[in-house]
Specification:
The structure is a single chain. With 642 residues, the protein is α/β, with parallel strands linked by helices. It folds into five domains: 106 residues, Roll (Ubiquitin-like (UB roll)), CATH 3.10.20; 72 residues, Ubiquitin-like (UB roll), CATH 3.10.20.880; 142 residues, 2-Layer Sandwich (Nucleotidyltransferase, domain 5), CATH 3.30.420; 165 residues, Nucleotidyltransferase, domain 5, CATH 3.30.420; 105 residues, no CATH class. The protein contains 16 helices and 29 strands. A six-stranded mixed β-sheet has the order 14-13-12-15-17-16, sandwiched between helices. A six-stranded mixed β-sheet has the order 28-27-18-19-20-29, with helices on both faces. A five-stranded mixed β-sheet has the order 2-1-5-3-4, with helices on one face. A hairpin with a 3-residue loop joins strand 10 and strand 11. The termini are far apart. Bound molecules: FE2/S2 (inorganic) cluster. The site of FE2/S2 (inorganic) cluster has 12 residues, from loops.
Length: 642
């Protein structure tokens, strides 16, 4: 028999095959990655290839029986129905008749690379936990008295090589109806090659997943196509639990003081998530029942409340988690409006203060895969801090309080339209200029007033507070100890007395905005806690400085890194290597959604993370006191003077 040489690109895999062999069969034998849901029947169109050199047999010519297409719908039929781009062929139908070079485009690869982070083009390999398989099941007859499920199992084994499958009662309850409705053709979704999670009559081609970051302030959701890896819709909202308490600790005290209060908070967050599911499915025009997998990340208290676990124990020492392991549960257990048979994965928590959100940040930023020492800070009411490299990772949380988010600051507010977010102070005149969220203009640029008049200027958000305090220091208004210099009142009307201390008037007139001495103190306390936590971890790791610093979280990634360093929130580092990395926890959730192996990876990494409890470390207090000065009592910042 004549054998033809087949070369696949981009893998470079090659072999010789008999005339008439379907390309998909050759690919399977050589281990070339080509997608398929229909198992070579010409229905799904996932197996498309380009012929680079050579020739295939004509459409629809089946010159021999093949193992792949015993029930094939013709390629011509597929083309008529769904269309086939020029030069594209269905590899399950294209048959060899000579030597060929075949290109497998990324869209036809199961394990294609997808970009999960635009900032640094970070790519991951697709390997979703959920796969769809179309099967033809043998009909029952009097001579073959096996159950429908056993015949389905046999078909999945013969047509897809799956073994030892499990399924739950819900699947069985719908099985007979689905098999008969589909005329013995069904599509099965299988979770991690093990568990049947859903059966549809006939052919079903759609599978979606959710990546959700449940923050105490905001919830962010991405809807992803589980075959392409693309985000097809995103949405976010304020965490509806806010009505029970602004920050985490006030929510826990609400629960402690109101028996049954945990149920209300659980219900609130689940309702919020269901609202978001409604939004993203509408945006993408898909059915919520096609959402078959979801990944949730959140700090320990958000994690527990979403799961319906009372978080009271996390409100005080020793901050015991109910479980720090990862979890996989049914969507129905959370009352989600996505497919109730969908599987939901929770990343592991690291410690009582350091949650699954930090695990997701580690997965996203991968400090454990690098030689250079990374410091990661998720700036929130509790700063979650990670230091380390491929040798060791250490994590802690530090009680920064809500000052960075604008709370406890007299004119502080959430980052929303009308909030001052950027501030500069002229060192000569001490006159400020600023930028407001929702306007592109600086306050001293022409046309500024008209633009802002629409919403008015309502306060200063976290990033603005950091900048104004840092600028006050740089312009000499603040001493190293953070005291507003009252003698400047003679020089500038911006410095005014307030009892025994002074304040800085950032905006005068009717809607006056002032930075009081107490505001500066609140920022000093917060930044000192953050610095002390980072310093403690660096100490334990055995370094005086780190190679890169990443700021994450809704707030952290908005801070101008230079000002964070001017204030001494973070240790000295080459500014080129200090970055705001956006919502890294959300990216980590997407990685876990799209790549099954990454779940095992992060579970292993989290086991090795050394947890440091700042509250019981004697040195923490000393570090904290020294870090009250701006930028620091003793530590130097050579990178700032560059
Ligand atoms: Fe489904 Fe070829 S494998 S069309």
């Amino acid at each position: 028999e004549k054998l033809h040489l087949v070369v696949f690109t981009p893998s470079g895999k090659r072999g010789r095959f008999a005339e008439g062999t379907p390309v998909l069969e050759a690919a399977r034998i050589l281990g070339v990655d080509i997608d398929s849901v229909c198992g070579g029947r010409g229905i799904c169109g996932r197996c498309q290839v380009n012929l680079t050199v050579g020739e295939f047999a004509k459409h629809g010519v089946v010159s021999r029986e093949t193992s792949l297409s015993p029930f094939a719908v013709g390629e011509e039929k597929f083309k008529a129905r769904r269309g086939l781009a020029d030069g594209r062929r269905l590899s399950c139908h294209a048959q060899l008749m000579g030597d060929v070079i075949i290109d497998v485009p990324p869209s036809s690869q199961v394990h294609r690379q997808v970009i999960v982070k635009k900032a640094d083009d970070r790519k991951i390999e697709m390997d979703p936990a959920i796969r769809l398989h179309f099967v033809q099941v043998q009909e029952p007859d009097m001579h073959n008295p096996t159950g429908d499920f056993e015949r389905l199992e046999l078909a999945l084994n013969q047509q897809w090589g799956l073994t030892e499958l499990e399924c739950d009662l819900r699947t069985l309850q719908a099985l007979q109806k689905n098999l008969r409705e589909g005329n013995w053709n069904v599509t099965v979704s299988v979770h991690r090659n093990k568990r049947i999670t859903k059966i549809w009559p006939g052919f079903h081609n759609r599978a979606y997943g959710l990546a959700v970051d449940v923050g105490s302030t905001t919830i962010a959701m991405h809807l992803c196509d589980l075959s392409s890896g693309e985000v097809v819709a995103s949405s976010g909202m304020m965490n509806p639990q806010i009505r029970y308490g602004e920050d985490l600790m006030s929510r826990v005290s609400y629960i402690m003081m109101n028996p049954g209060g945990d149920k209300l908070l659980t219900e609130a967050v689940r309702q919020g998530i269901n609202e978001l599911i409604g939004e993203v499915t509408e945006l993408a025009g898909i059915n919520p029942t096609d959402i078959l997998n979801a990944v949730f990340v959140g700090n320990p208290i958000m994690h527990h409340l979403l799961l319906g676990i009372d978080p009271t124990e996390l409100g005080g020492a020793p901050f015991a988690l109910t479980t720090n392991s990862s979890m996989t549960i049914w969507a129905s257990e959370l009352g989600l409006t996505s497919n109730p048979d969908g599987r939901v994965y929770f990343l592991p928590c690291i410690a009582g203060h350091v949650g699954a959100d930090t695990a997701a940040v580690i997965l996203s930023e991968a400090p454990h895969l690098q030689r250079q020492v990374t410091l990661i800070v998720d700036v929130g009411t509790n700063a979650e801090i990670v230091v380390g490299n491929s040798d060791r990772l250490l994590a802690a949380s530090s009680p920064t309080g809500p000052a960075f988010e604008g709370a406890q600051i007299s004119c502080g507010q959430r980052a929303a339209a009308g909030a001052i977010e950027r501030v500069r102070i002229d060192p000569e005149t001490l006159e400020p200029r600023f930028k407001v969220i929702g306007s592109d203009l600086w306050s001293d640029e022409e046309g500024f007033d008209e633009e802002t008049a629409k919403s008015g200027i309502t306060g200063i958000c976290g990033s603005g507070i950091i900048e104004v305090v840092a600028e006050m220091y740089l312009s000499g208004i603040l001493s190293v100890d953070g005291v507003i210099d009252g003698s400047l009142a003679a020089k500038s009307p911006r410095i005014v007395a307030d009892g025994r201390t002074f304040s800085y008037v950032i905006r005068d007139g009717e809607s006056e905005l002032k930075i009081y001495q107490t505001d500066v103190r609140a920022i000093q306390l917060a930044k000192a806690a953050l610095y002390a936590g980072a310093k403690l971890l660096m100490d334990k790791f055995g370094v005086d400085s780190v190679d890169r610093i990443l700021l994450t979280g809704a707030f952290g990634s908005h801070i101008d890194t230079k000002y964070a360093m001017v204030l001494g929130m973070i240790p000295d580092c080459n500014l080129k290597n200090v970055h705001g990395v956006g919502n890294a926890a959300g990216v980590g959730a997407r990685i876990a959604l799209l790549n099954n192996k990454s779940r095992t990876e992060i579970e292993e990494v989290v086991k090795t993370v050394e947890k440091i409890e700042t509250a019981v470390e004697p040195k923490f207090q000393d570090y904290f006191v020294d870090a009250m000065a701006i930028p620091h009592k003793t530590a130097s910042y050579p990178n700032l003077s560059k």
